[in-house]
Amino acid sequence: MIELTNVSKSYRTDTIETLALQRLNLSVPDGEFLSIMGPSGCGKSTLLNIMGLIDEPSEGSVVLAGQPVTSYNGSKVARFRNEQLGFIFQSFHLINDLSVVDNVELPLLYRKMGGKERRRLALDALERVGLSNRATHFPNQLSGGQKQRVAIARAIVGRPNIILADEPTGNLDSHMGGEIMDILTRLNTDLGTTIVMVTHDERMARMTHRLVRLSDGERVS
Amino acid sequence: MIKNYLTLALKVLRRKPFYTFVSLFGISFTLMILMLITSMGDAMFGANPPMTDVNKMVFLPQAERILQFYDTTYVVDSVRMDDGRMRYDSTANVREGGMNNSTGNLAFHFLDQTLRGLDRVASYTFYSNDGFVDAYLDGRKLTMSTCYTDADYWEVFDFDFLYGQPFTADAVAGADKVVVITEVVAREYFGEVTADVIGREIALGRERFTVAGIVARPYKDDDSINGDVFMPYTTIDNRKLQSDNISGPFNAVFKAEDKAHTAGIIDEIHFIAETYDMSGDEDYEILKLTAATATEKMAAEIMQEDDLRQAKLLLFIPLITLLTLFVALPLINLINLSVSRVYERRSEIAVRKAFGADSRSILYQFLFENMVLTVIGGLIGLALALLLIRYINANDLLGIVRLAFSARVFVYFLLLIAVFGLLSGLLPALRMSRTNVADALR
Ligand SMILES: Nc1ncnc2c1ncn2[C@@H]1O[C@H](COP(=O)(O)OP(=O)(O)OP(=O)(O)O)[C@@H](O)[C@H]1O
Ligand SMILES: [Mg+2]
């Protein structure tokens, strides 16, 4: 369960103040597959970041799994991110110095787990996004779509309860995009993973349980 | 857990060969240079054989004889105070003149007469080592520096005898033609450094000497020990021995019972000079003896400065500044490298945080990367330093002096580099580990 109450986020630069989110209320029950749509710059990524505890709201409260979030640093929030959350970033953010499989392993590195077990789970996750044959490649040897799939493998490898996906199909052709949607849908139905997905694609949005529209930082539906 | 961080560090370092190379080069080269400087400093200032007791030693490098004379006397008009009143005075004298002086080593006779039996002296030696002698070998000329001295010389200086023995007091008394040679001379002249050389003859100038001992090369650079061939002073040209003069070709070294007594010995020597009866000297009236500890003597020699305290300051202040810079510059470089590397990886840190790394794991990661670099760089630096010192020793690049490698100093420097490496890696990493993830990933 994710509960945002009256969440605002403003960015202050020298001259202007941008309100990326305005008094936004949203609650996502466990097991929901939610999509978020809206024009560019309306605050979708900002919203996702706040839900994922990697950005602090300027105002309002965030309650995750019944716990109000007060600190954005420290080992408690770190453990929460590690065990409960999986991110798929809009621009992948793979680590270029690490091989594909090492990138996928990353969340497991912060768990008590043997190296063999980690490797097995990582290869498993790569298999599910259809990239087993690229395990030893490095990110700069991959296409945009392949990077996207590595990012997805990294997000699902730790079996998080919540996946936050920022345009996970944005860089893929419709066939590949469909496969990714399959993976996410299966995670949602089989494991009950809560998924919040930002998308620009109406068809993808229609495949989810619920659609929330944003405009200029405000919820319009 | 440790294994995770270690493999991660190795992976990242392997992926960045250029950065890794530059860091390793920086660390190992810094270590090598530091080791070289310290071993050279150690050879100059350290207490190494054959001058292990250098801190107890008082050197008498030279004497200065002075004559002050006044050749002009002016009578000047002046005003002087008298009973609180100003008086005009036309009788004040101002004398102007000059000074003659003569500086040099000492005559054996003088040393023999005046400087035996000083208080608190455990052992002492008189020696003359400013001459050279030629030896001819298959038409090749070997020029060697001589040291004429007494049997106590081997008491004062702890030379390492590879073969044979020092010459005895009896040999000195009997003016026996015996000689102690360095291993360098043994190799050059006899072609070997073995026990066989002992008892063989070496032609020095027009005389033949029997080899009594072979000494190892010193780990210390000082002119009191840098002779090539050592002979009883009784075998020196008689004219050099039998002068009634104060100056001659000899120096003296006194080894105090304890380091604390050196100042007293120096005072006593100064006192002897002050009270020395100069009436026998036709040209001079005042005698000054320059008695000095090893560091004072060294400073005075390098700085060409007679005031010993002044010389010490003049030498050591710039020297220490220079050394500090030498240490600081490569360290600053390493810090810079290390800091910029952490900042470069801001987004990596943010990604790790987003997937559950806490500040401690981020710090550990950089800690291990730095540690791996320091250990590997340290090993390379160790190898480089050892090779360089061996090369210098093997090729006599510093003359007769041998450089010693000090494992203790090496560990200190390695720790220094590790500490700076860690600080420079960890402090920025600490800061970065607290940054807002979303900001870093935008
Ligand atoms: N660090 C920042 N400083 C100032 N303004 C910011 C900052 N980050 C975001 N913004 C502004 O906040 C608003 C929302 O940004 P956000 O990235 O959430 O948009 P978005 O809906 O994800 O857009 P897109 O579909 O293009 O990804 C934008 O107007 C953006 O310019
Ligand atoms: Mg966005």
Automatic annotation (TrEMBL), chain A:
Keywords: ATP-binding, Hydrolase, Nucleotide-binding, Translocase, Transport. It is an enzyme of class 3 (hydrolase). The gene is yknY_2. SUPFAM superfamilies: P-loop containing nucleoside triphosphate hydrolases. Coiled coil: none annotated. One of its GO terms (molecular function) is hydrolase activity. Belongs to the ABC transporter superfamily. This is ABC transporter ATP-binding protein YknY. Its EC number is 3.6.3.-. Residues 2-220 form the ABC transporter domain. InterPro entries: AAA+_ATPase, ABC_transporter-like_ATP-bd, ABC_transporter-like_CS, MacB-like_ATP-bd, P-loop_NTPase. It holds the Pfam family ABC_tran.
UniProtKB/TrEMBL annotation, chain B:
Residues 20-269 form the MacB-like periplasmic core domain. Coiled coil: none annotated. InterPro entries: ABC3_permease_C, MacB_PCD, Macrolide_Exporter_MacB. It is a multi-pass membrane protein. Its main location: membrane. Residues 321-436 form the ABC3 transporter permease C-terminal domain. It is found in: Cell membrane. Signal peptide: none annotated. The keyword Membrane applies. Keywords: Cell membrane, Membrane, Transmembrane, Transmembrane helix. The chain crosses the membrane at residues 18-37, 313-335, 371-389, 409-430. This is FtsX-like permease family protein.
